[in-house]
Amino acid sequence: MPRIKQFSPLLYLLLGGCVPYANDYAPTRERKVSYNGNPRQLPPRLVMRDARAEKHFVYGVDPAGFDGEFRKVGSRVAFRLGAASGRRLVLEYRSPSPQSVHVKANGVLVGEFTADGRDSRDGRGQWSVELPAAAILEGMPTLVELESPSGFAVASVALEN
Q1: How far is the first Cα of the chain from the last one, in angstroms, to the nearest whole number?
Q2: What residues contact 61, with CB distance under 8 A and at least 6 apart?
Q3: Mean pLDDT on 14-39
Q4: Whose CA is closest to 93, among 116, 62, 64?
Q5: Under a CB-based contact definition with an 8 Å cutoff, are residues 127 and 93 in contact?
Q6: Contact, 87 vs 130, CB < 8 A?
Q7: Residue pair 104/79 in contact by the 8 Å Cβ criterion
Q8: What does DSSP assign to residue 121?
Q9: Fewest 10 Å CB contacts: which of 74, 139, 151, 159?
Q10: What integer pLDDT is reported at residue 145 of this predicted model?
Q11: Is the per-residue pLDDT at 147 higher than 90?
Q12: DSSP 3-state of 19
């Protein structure tokens, strides 16, 4: 009987470790973008303050993180833009701290920039890049992916001429 009392705290610890805890750090759920098979229904420009912009977020956008102009995005984010004749990708952003951002279009790395939030008076930065031919799929939507260490805020993403 005294041996059971000696090992009872250990037994409680072992059994207490079997409790299933929810994963608070689960990745955000990927959203299916509905464009009914016609990529021309997707806009070539997403402005975050537009109410219809939400249905073109694929993953990584915080729905509650919206201040009227910018949307907070996580460290990995993707947007689906419509097929357009534009080959220039333009991004307007705001970043709380200096960080490197990798940009992909349809899985092809098209560029990298340093987002520091001090590019203009209002803290808004703008970055653009000419997309290579390998990143453009004619007549198909364009998947734009952004990867950064800590996330930032986006005002607009566009394909322009």
Answers
A1: 83
A2: 28, 54, 71, 72, 73, 74, 77, 79
A3: 58
A4: 116
A5: yes
A6: yes
A7: no
A8: T
A9: 139
A10: 92
A11: yes
A12: coil
